[in-house]
Each structure stands twice: as C-alpha cells, then as structure tokens.
C-alpha cells in the first residue's frame, strides 16, 4: 500500500466529510429542538447549489473578476435565499402540524422534498449543469514510490477550514447567546419555555433558517469542488448527512461533524481500495454496527425518560 496514495485519500475523505458535516449540522439542530427530522433539508442543499451556480455565472456576466469578492457575494446571496426556503418549510410544512401525530410533519417534509426536486427540474432542466473551475492551484505535499504526488488544493483547505469555523461559531451561538439559550430551553421543554417568555415559534423558525443557510454553504462548496450539479444531488447527500447525524449522535453538533467526517473517510478509503459500487453499503453497514453497540451514536447522550 503506497503511503502517498493513502494520504491523498485521507485528504479527499476529509473534504467530502466536511460537506456532509455542514448538511448534518442542519439536521441535528432541527431534531434537537422539535424532535423531528427535516427530510426536505437535502433539497434545500440542492437549491443552494443551484443558486451558487447562478450567482457565479451572474458575477462573470457583470464583470466581478476578483474571485474572493465574487465568492463572498455568491455565498451571501445563496445563504439569504435558502434561509427563506428554510423559513417557508417551517412555516408551511411543520408549524401547522406541530400538535398533530408525529408522522404528520415527517410526511409533510417528504412532500416538500419531492416538490422541490420537481420544481428545480422544471425550472432548470434535468440535465447536469457543469461549471468551469473557479479556484485553482494548491500545494504538493509529497511524492510516493511510483511517482504519485499528493496534492492539497486551495479549495480543499477552504472547505475544511470553513467547516471548522462554522462548527465553532454555531457551538458558541448555542452555548453563549440568548438565541442559543432559547433553543436549549425549547429542546428540554417547549411548553415550559413558552411559559417563561421564550418565543417558541420564532426560535424554531430561526433554527430552520440557520440550518438552511448552512446547507447553502455546503451546496456552494460542492458546486466549486465537483464542478457539476443536477436536481437529484440533494436526495443522496441528504441521506448521507442524516446518516452522519445519526452516527455522531443525533442532537449533538460535534457529533454531526464527527459523523460527517467519518462517512467521508469511509467512502474515500473504500472507493480507493475496494469496489466503488459498494461504498454506500459500507457506510450503512458501519452505521448499523455503531447503532447496535451504541444506539445513541458516538457522541449522543442516551435519552432519559422523565417520570
């Protein structure tokens, strides 16, 4: 086994895992407050990818050629629009059904997911949308025995650093700010939180908004990294990110990041040394094993039923 090839796959796995982690954070934040999985979250990520593609094209047409400025504008644009999508999903698909039986919001979210898929397919077409590389260059780290060179691109560094920064920022927000305290209060007991003055509706809506904005960041990173997107990318990425959230411990922010990184590494290493067709099987097999021996996930806390 060439060590240089192994190092390259580890770098690729960390990069892919960082994207999964960004989407998984959105899943785990929503679950932590309302105890429901937002199955439309993957499609919000897909919408963010398309908005990023449109924004990059517009920046080129209007002559914004300085890459950092163009990407910053595109990122803010994509996050703002997808935040509106997150707010609308909570307002339309979740809030009216909050007092209903537990499956009702889940079915509603799946309906929103199918709607967004078909809406983007009709609006943008079913063909994959390619984009020329925007961020080029990188570092050559080492050379293996067979002349294989390990490279770390500037884009990979950007993706991993941005993921770590966002995780630190959101952890601070949840643990140190009034909004974070309101979120934790709603997580423990929404009825009691409302009695002590917490605006439960606003807190839940803001959680959806923040999760959707993070999904837009992941969508932009995927657009830049792979250079091609289509209307169906949200489904598989959503399933993988949900798996990452469960693997790390649903409801735990560091757990979502850890789960995303682990899944990215498993996929990269399995694709490198075994059959690429079975990489998804490997991911879900490891998830099953973790849940058998640690049902709450790697960093999750077991639920204690109050009597």
Question: Which tags fit this structure?
Answer:
two-stranded antiparallel sheet, 5% strand, globular, 307 residues, 11 helices, mainly alpha
Short synopsis of the structure:
It is built from 11 helices and 4 strands; from the N terminus they run H-H-H-H-E-E-E-H-H-H-H-E-H-H-H. By secondary structure, it is mainly α. Strands 1-4 form a two-stranded antiparallel sheet. It has a two-stranded antiparallel sheet with strand order 2-3.
Distance between the termini: 55 Å
State the helicity in percent bands.
Answer: over 70%
Rg from Cα: 20 Å
Q: Outline, from the CA principal axes?
A: globular
* Uncertain parts: none
* Number of DSSP strand runs: 4
Q: How large is the count of helical segments?
A: 11
- Please list the strands of the largest sheet in the order they lie side by side: 1-4
Question: What can be said about the biggest beta sheet?
Answer: 2 strands, antiparallel
The chain-level mean pLDDT equals: 88
Write down the secondary-structure element order.
HHHHEEEHHHHEHHH
Overview of the structural elements:
By secondary structure, the chain is mainly alpha-helical. It has eleven helices and four strands. The strands form two sheets. A two-stranded antiparallel ribbon has the order 1-4. Strands 2-3 form a two-stranded antiparallel ribbon. Strand 2 (138-143) and strand 3 form a beta hairpin. Helix 6 packs across helix 8. The protein is globular and about 65 Å long. The model has no long low-confidence stretch (mean pLDDT 88).
